[in-house]
């Protein structure tokens, strides 16, 4: 068995387990209804033999009056059975509609919950459009499979088993003819249905690739326009679209060929059985069945023809679902791949709590907001708990790191930042500046060395608590659909309107916000597309200000702001940074002059360190950067 087959089987079994986990009673009722529906259609067909042999044929010779009561009872029984089948079909289709939509709801919740637990590395290595395709195309494939294909497949399987039993019950010889054609139809289904399934899966992958490309181009539309890359983008899209066209065409071509072939084979089977049956009746040959041997009758032949027609239609029905099943299983595989992704590991046990000083001058935990925070550190050795005041004292000791183990990007990085100090990182693109800040908030974990926060190894601190103590302003601003006030409050969800406005005033964002059509209640959409880049950056800084953390990370925070606005922001930032430990990454060296220490990085190593005056006096790399003798790349 190939790994691909094992993977498909695993996805299918996981899907079945999911269904029975959430809807065991519903599915139990559905299965009973499907059994009733399948059996009713077959059993009602079997009444044809009795109707013909016990009512119609005798009525021709002796008159209909003699058999009228028997015919009426048979028709009544057939009517009751058909009604039972119709009611059962109605019930299970209604229930499956609830089950299908409910399952999609659970899948989306589980996917989103899992996505929020994944490390940043996952999103750095997976196209966002491809992830979105899992929420849309793959779940839609699951909808079709759960709501339509699986019930129809189950019903078709039961119908086939029932028909096979009845055919053997009526005639072994005629059954052999049906089985020969069934084998031929299955071979055709395997050939064309298998090809259709293969390209259905490829179509799903091609669709995800195309959506990923479209999402990427939409995000970068300004860049495409600026560099006049419209034609190149069209050419790249056409390649992806051609691949999707090719896969989709082949999938549906094979699928469309399969139906007519099976229908024609079914018609041929019907004709052959009719001819053989007529010959058997004409020559008065003995019929062999499970109940013995007897002269074959017109009722048996007609009933058998009806069952053969139903049998071939059932095979066609199954073949029509093969592609949908394959596409659904492929979609389930992608859904479960996301759900089963390894979540971000967090072995920390030190938490951040509200604290206050007791009468003896010791820190103690409190359940009300005091404005004082402490690290709650339980000690496994003796079961004691100690509290350390959150100050923002950060140290890196001989840190090595690589995004992949075989390629280190940071080498033996050691530095310290005392509470209230401003530390700046300067260096060319790719020198490792942002990487250091990613290690402080544990977006990535170091390969070797230690990072300590207030003397505590950050590996011992729970990640949510660690990140709650850090504010960050990124070069790439992300705003969310909602009002300006809601976007500022994103920094601290329990912040009042007054606190949000105070944060905006502190960072000089209030002046432009009050000029917006609805002020702080102006709706933002499309990542703040109705604001300028500088205004969006001001909002992100205000968002960090309202969080009021003891430590701030400013990654090119003013890179998108003009010189005049930068002066206003810098004034607000100076107030924001008072009493806080601040890590600054900047290409504009004017923004780091007042830093306590400036770290000059090159290829993942600190090559110079000191304050502005010290580094100017050294006349090294920083001096060359500052005087313009050497430029950052």
What does this structure look like?
There is one protein chain. Helices cover 61% and strands 14% of the residues. It has 18 helices and 18 strands. The chain has helices at 3-22, 24-62, 68-116, 120-125, 128-170, 172-219, 221-226, 230-282, 298-339, 433-440, 463-468, 484-489, 497-506, 510-513, 533-547, 563-577, 612-618, 621-627; strands at residues 286-289, 292-295, 351-357, 363-365, 373-378, 385-389, 394-401, 410-417, 422-427, 448-453, 456-457, 470-473, 482-483, 523-524, 551-555, 581-585, 597-602, 605-610. It has a 6-stranded mixed β-sheet, with helices on both faces. Helix 13 packs across helix 15 (533-547). The longest helix is centred in the middle third of the chain and has 53 residues, at 230-282.
Descriptors:
633 residues, alpha+beta, six-stranded mixed sheet, four-stranded antiparallel sheet, 18 strands
Q: Please report the distance between the alpha carbons of the first and last residues.
A: 53 Å
Overall average residue pLDDT: 82
Low-confidence stretches: 1-6
Structural class: alpha+beta
What share of the residues does DSSP label as strand, in percent? 5-15%
What sort of overall outline do the alpha carbons produce when their principal axes are compared?
elongated
Number of helices: 18
The total beta strand count reads 18
Q: What is the radius of gyration?
A: 37 Å
Helix content: 55-70%
Strand order of the largest sheet: 12-15-16-9-17-18
Largest sheet: 6 strands, mixed
